[in-house]
Design a protein that fits this description.
It is a single chain. The chain is mainly alpha-helical and 157 residues long. The protein has a domain of 105 residues: Winged helix-like DNA-binding domain superfamily/Winged helix DNA-binding domain (Arc Repressor Mutant, subunit A). The protein has 6 helices and 3 strands, in the order H-H-E-H-H-E-E-H-H. It has a 3-stranded antiparallel β-sheet with strand order 1-3-2. It is globular, with a radius of gyration of 20 Å.
């Protein structure tokens, strides 16, 4: 009796493709951030605060950064400290357990957001809507699967 081995068929897209696209667009965004004198992680702090409705508890902010950036708690808190020290993020006046963007932080965030919209329009513009919808759906599944593997403690071997 013989067994026939099947050769896996290569996917038309994979991790390398995702990394190339991510790193290329990230390099463009990093230049915008460098011009502003901040890092990607620092802008992630400000984005997280804005996405939370304008203020968030410090511990929740750190947890969200750990989850989204895949960094440890110390790195998350370092990124937070790096935007608190120059005054871009501050405690909410009547709720010191909550943190918000300062006026300078709001200006910086608004400027970066405006530039990001322009960059995104150039990078994603002209692609068919159905391709973008399919891409979003696939990326959501890939992200969900990878997060589930991390949560389950999956490692190589």
């Amino acid at each position: 009796m013989t067994t026939t081995e099947t050769t896996p068929v290569a996917s038309p897209v994979g991790g390398r493709d995702l990394q190339l696209a991510t790193r290329a667009t990230r390099a463009v965004l990093d230049r915008v951030l460098a011009d502003a004198g901040i890092t990607f992680e620092q802008m992630a702090v400000m984005n997280t605060i804005e996405l939370a409705g304008g203020s968030i508890a410090l511990d929740s902010l750190a947890v969200q950064l750990v989850q989204t950036l895949k960094i440890d708690d110390a790195a998350a808190r370092g990124a937070i400290a790096a935007v608190v020290e120059p005054g871009f993020v501050q405690p909410v006046e009547d709720r010191p357990d909550q943190w918000e963007l300062s006026a300078a932080g709001r200006r910086l965030h608004a400027d970066y957001s405006r530039q990001t919209v322009q960059i995104s329009a150039e990078v994603w513009g002209g692609l068919p809507q159905e391709d973008l919808v399919a891409t979003k759906r696939v990326l959501d599944v890939v992200t969900s699967r990878a997060n589930a593997m991390l949560a389950a403690g999956i490692t190589n071997g």
